[in-house]
Amino acid sequence: MRDDLDVLIVGAGLAGIGAAHQLQSAFPGLDYAILESRDSLGGTWDLFRYPGVRSDSDMFTMAYRFRPWPGAQSFAGGESILDYVRSTATDSGVDRRIRYRHRVVSASWSSDDARWTVLAEHDGEQVRLTAKFLHLCPGYYHYEQPHSPEFEGVERFTGTVVHPQHWPEDLDHAGKRVVVIGSGATAITLVPAMAETAAHVTMLQRSPSYVVATPGQDPLLAGLGGKLGKRATYALVRWKNIVLGSSMYRFSRLFPTWMRNSIRKSTAERLPAGYDVDTHFNPRYDPWDQRMCLAPDGDIFDALSSGKASVVTDHVEEFTETGLRLRSGAQLDADIVITATGLRLHAFGGITFTVDGRDVAPSETTVYKGAMLSGIPNLTFTFGYTNHSWTLKADLVGEFVIRLLRAMRRSCHDLCVPVAAGRGTLPMIENFTSGYVQRGIDAFPRSGSKAPWQVKMAYFHDLLVLRHLPINDHHLRFARAHSQARPSPSLSISDE
């Protein structure tokens, strides 16, 4: 493996593996590598091992555009998703380009050389690599440090306290009383999975989330029955889900009261008569102010209806020896308490950036076309959707990177950099009230109010911008390395 590369990818998760596959398919001679901080690929799907871990988006949009999802279920378990990512990497040889246990610490750009110098920590030593182009796919949250609030008296508790991000392999919950603190996608997944064998599972939430029951198997897929062939069926189901998801999101934003009432009605129909839906499943915020929680085949409602699980809406006052005392004065006894209290955002994996000797914080930059940062040359990044599958955006960014590299090659330019008139005035994720976003969004780049600087959670907008609109515009500047006396192609890729 060389240490002077054409393209360096950071992160070997779903986005990083997909980007590598796209790049080497477009440019067979490309000299690239992937740096992965952990000792295995898969990102999120290798990290999370809690019971029932599954996709929170349908697999026909969460899977890659170039590699159809092989299963029939709309929502897959974590192990199946990990197998899918691994097979994508091994079948294409991408896995041979990964350098594990390489945590990127810093990246310094030199316009004189048109190179990134990247420093990474590897087994206690510092490794130095250079690259002409840097593509960041490290995810958006901190892998080692989840969000863990301080609970009063937790040291008194004689049972087991676990965060889903650090699930112990030997934890046996069979026949145990379990309390899951939280109401997000992780809690909604954990409760029905653990209720199958636990004595009882209680979901303790400060406030409710929207939970929508959805078919476990796509009805269009079932109806087609393989008549069109695997690839055509996958494309049709994928596009149907994209259009339906985009339409429902847009409708929710335009008519939030109608959507709230519709979800409430559907929820009430899934629960026993007289269930207190307004206390436990009627949020204070509007639909899609936070990400929707999906329940395949309504599994959490089935667990609640059977009596194997219950929901308590209250606040934790303190831990006791045998469980939790709530603000209302009620006591919840537990053998195991799971703190599904959310993620901790981590902008670009904590990498520090320098451009021609000047430190540049991501929060000082503005996002260009949802894929680049103002003032930082030869750098792209993947940040997926809050209202769609992460991979939909990752696929589009991968295509944009290919188009950008081809444009640079054809024009014999060594560098390209978005130039903004000023710093963006809006958060990168606007109008999204989830706690984990509000706690950490200030460390991320800013969004402008107008294209191409406006970050939109809109697939069809990005489809036009990243796949179809011309690469060249007056916001993106191309140049040659300062040390180059004449044009000289710098990227070892073909024009095809």
TrEMBL record:
Its cofactor is FAD. Pfam families: FMO-like. Keywords: FAD, Flavoprotein, Monooxygenase, NADP, Oxidoreductase. The keyword Transport does not apply. GO terms for molecular function: flavin adenine dinucleotide binding; N,N-dimethylaniline monooxygenase activity; NADP binding. PANTHER family: MONOOXYGENASE, PUTATIVE (AFU_ORTHOLOGUE AFUA_8G02570)-RELATED. Belongs to the FAD-binding monooxygenase family. This is Cation diffusion facilitator CzcD-associated flavoprotein CzcO. It comes from Saccharopolyspora dendranthemae.
